[in-house]
Amino acid sequence: MSMLLHLTGVTAFYGAIQALKGVDLEVHEGEIVTLIGANGAGKSTLMMTICGNPRARDGAIRYDGHDITQRPTHEIMRMGLAQSPEGRRIFPRMTVLENLLMGAHGRADAEAAETMEQVFTLFPRLKERLAQRGGTLSGGEQQMLAIARALMSRPRLLLLDEPSLGLAPLVVRQIFGAIRDLNRQTGLTVLLVEQNAFQALRLAHRGYVLVNGAITMAGTGAELLARPEIRAAYLEGAH
After folding, report:
1. What is residue 26's predicted lDDT score, i.e. its pLDDT?
2. Could you tell me which of 69, 55, 3 has the C-alpha nearest to residue 30?
3. Which of 45, 51, 56, 195 is the most exposed place for a label (fewest CB within 10 A)?
């Protein structure tokens, strides 16, 4: 498998506060890789740094063989990355259809229509809500829409930030099932940031543990699930 994303020694700051401390991370084409850690560990910062905001102060970020460390965000996204950020940042006043079309910017109509059909196979609920305003959807439907909008650009790498946050267990299973199906059926590469460590590690091929801005552990999803320190810190009572 070829390397799609490679971080080496990445540091990032918010003002005087160091949020990332020399992070090394690899994502190979076709993998689901998850990053787990407590609230405030720096997981979302890592996602944002890959996208160029905040900018990495030290180290290098390579995507598909290209150094993207200093590239502006809009250029990075044009290279085949898409992000579904934490907090389901959909356009609440726009309809489901309008939200999806925003994700398809720059795509030909026929290509966008084909991608939309794939999205509806994954999330049939969105097809039923096509004319409904995003802000009136349930939390689970809004999360589906946020992921679907990211998929409309046909990315090679999907960055998913806390997709299960605040959702009922049944909806969480639906969303994780959709991510698994996407990866198996289309080979889509996914970097997943998630507090629900049990679901994330079951889904992922490999995982990393982030503690206070530094990677402290890495391994396959199964290996990390079996580690007693992971079970004690992240999994007790989680399922």
Report:
1. 97
2. 3
3. 195
